[in-house]
Write a structure and sequence with these properties.
There is one protein chain. By secondary structure, this protein is of the alpha/beta class. The chain has twelve helices and 22 strands. It is about 30% helix and about 25% strand. The strands form three sheets. Strands 5, 15, 16, 17, 18, 19, 20, 21 and 22 form a nine-stranded mixed sheet that branches. Strands 6-7-8-9-10-12-13-14 form an eight-stranded parallel beta barrel, surrounded by five helices. Strands 1-2-3-4 form a four-stranded antiparallel sheet. α3 links the parallel β6 and β7. α2 packs parallel to α9, α5 packs across α6 and α8 runs parallel beside α9. The longest helix is centred in the middle third of the chain and has 21 residues. The N and C termini lie far apart (about 65 Å). Bound molecules: ligand LLP.
């Protein structure tokens, strides 16, 4: 048995194994496309973040941004690891509740929370509302006063920093739909309003500069911008920053691409700079909170597809089609995201062709991987696409009425069906026949 990488090995049959399980057996048992999550990797990533925060002189909190991948069982794993979660909708909150996730460790995000979502969250006694805008602030103020129930809040501020990432996943720049702008005075107004509201407990600020960020400078720049204002507000009207939530966004590599800074180093650098900044501004250290999503689940996920048709255009391209694609992983089509893949049933075979992996949706843009070196391929081979744990299943759709894949968790030689595969019959739960008066 030879070691491949990150909990993945190749067995004597030349099959890819994850957590000691043959992925071909798993594909036969659960069907394809199949998402396999190596839960040990999830646990290791959480531990890595906790360790990286250990040297920070005040309390810290890791809050898993569950939009990257949520399921009842995943919330239960997160709870076992004793960290918090972020939810961004009534739907995520509902699943977290179904998982029995403790309310006080749930933080609620979103730029357009509805009144009923706020009520649900208040009913469940969630930890913090990350307040994004005046509409939400007004609603929350009114609701908490009506209910005579105190809600803990952080104000989300937009630091005005352009981080180096894809524009669709950039959030900390001035022209962003998220958060209160600092420069125009909106953030200050929000802080004052929250501070004055009888039933709001303002604990601090939140920022999130974007996603898939590998350097630390943008975080440090954003924190510096914010702290200038914090100092001013502290002097002017006694604002205390008890919690500073610096968001998520720590980058991961979906393809092997040489050395990059690990999230651990990135976070340690950020923590050190934050300490220096608080000393410079002569402010007490706040609690440091982070919200990683991708970096907790991304590398834990592998997708197994069944290979079907091929189209060979001499001197142009060799297309290999698989039984999924943009419906289970929109990231290549949407963000030009790149992935690496191998034949799960013939891991030791040497690449002989450069092929491009096409999805099965009726859409030319449904391509998963361009120009991938692979061995000679035949129908029914199984293709393993690596590092698909972040925002793939989470963004899955039923485009072309494709059914969402099953999700299996594996750990220490055990497997468990976390989310069952959809079937076309599931669609009928939403469908009605045309009534008489429409005929
Ligand atoms: N906190 C906030 C407020 C966020 O908006 C996000 C992600 C995170 C934390 C977690 O970021 P992460 O650590 O996962 O990078 N669908 C896109 C990513 C969208 C990210 C949205 N917000 C993708 O597939 O790349």
């Amino acid at each position: 048995m030879s070691k491949f990488r990150d909990g993945r090995t190749v067995n004597d049959k030349g099959h890819l194994e994850i957590a000691g399980l043959d992925t071909i057996d798993l594909a036969n048992k659960y069907g394809t496309p199949l998402f396999i999550y190596n839960i040990s990797t999830v646990r290791e990533n959480i531990k890595m973040f906790k360790d990286a925060l250990k040297n920070y002189p005040k309390n810290s909190e890791v809050s898993y941004a569950s939009k990257a991948f949520s399921s009842v069982a995943m919330y239960q794993i997160i709870e076992q690891e004793d960290i918090s979660i972020d939810v961004v909708s009534g739907g995520e909150l509902y699943i977290a509740k179904q998982a029995g996730f403790p309310g006080e460790r749930i933080n609620f995000h979103g730029n357009n929370k509805s009144r009923s979502e706020l009520i649900d969250a208040l009913d469940y006694g969630i930890g913090h509302f990350i307040v994004d805008n005046f509409h939400e602030l007004d609603m929350l103020k009114a609701l908490t006063a009506e209910r005579k129930q105190t809600a803990k809040v952080l104000i989300r501020v937009t630091p005005g920093v352009d981080a180096d990432t894809h524009k669709y996943i950039l959030t900390g720049n001035v022209d962003s739909k998220f958060g209160f702008d600092l420069e125009s005075g909106q953030a200050e107004d929000a802080v004052r309003m929250a501070q004055e509201a009888e039933y709001l407990q303002l604990d601090g600020l939140h920022m999130h500069i974007g996603s898939q960020i590998f350097e630390s400078d943008s975080y440090i720049l954003a924190m510096t911008q914010i702290l200038k204002y914090v100092k001013e507000w502290h002097t002017q009207f006694g604002f205390n920053l008890s919690i500073f939530n610096i968001g998520g966004g720590f980058g991961i590599q979906h393809i092997p691409n040489g050395e990059v800074t690990s999230s651990k180093n990135q976070l340690e650098e950020i923590g050190q700079s934050l300490i220096a900044l608080f000393e410079e501004y002569d402010l007490p250290y706040p609690e440091l909170w982070i919200e990683p999503g991708r970096s907790i689940v991304g590398e834990a996920g592998t997708t197994i597809y069944d290979v079907g048709s091929q189209k060979v255009l001499p001197d142009v391209r060799h297309y290999i089609s698989v039984d999924g694609g943009m419906a289970d992983n929109i990231r290549p089509a949407f963000y030009d995201a790149e992935y690496d893949a191998k034949l799960a049933n013939r891991m030791n075979d040497k690449p002989v062709n450069t092929v491009s992996i096409a999805g099965k949706a009726c859409e030319s843009g449904d391509m998963l991987i361009w120009d991938l070196p692979l061995p000679e391929i035949k129908a029914d081979d199984k293709l393993a696409v690596f590092n698909t744990g972040d925002y793939s299943f989470a963004m899955a759709s039923n485009y072309n009425r494709l059914t969402k894949p099953a999700v299996v968790f594996v750990e220490d030689g055990k497997d468990f069906l976390a989310i069952r595969r959809e079937t076309p019959e599931d669609f009928m739960r939403f469908e009605n026949n045309l009534p008489e008066d429409f005929r």
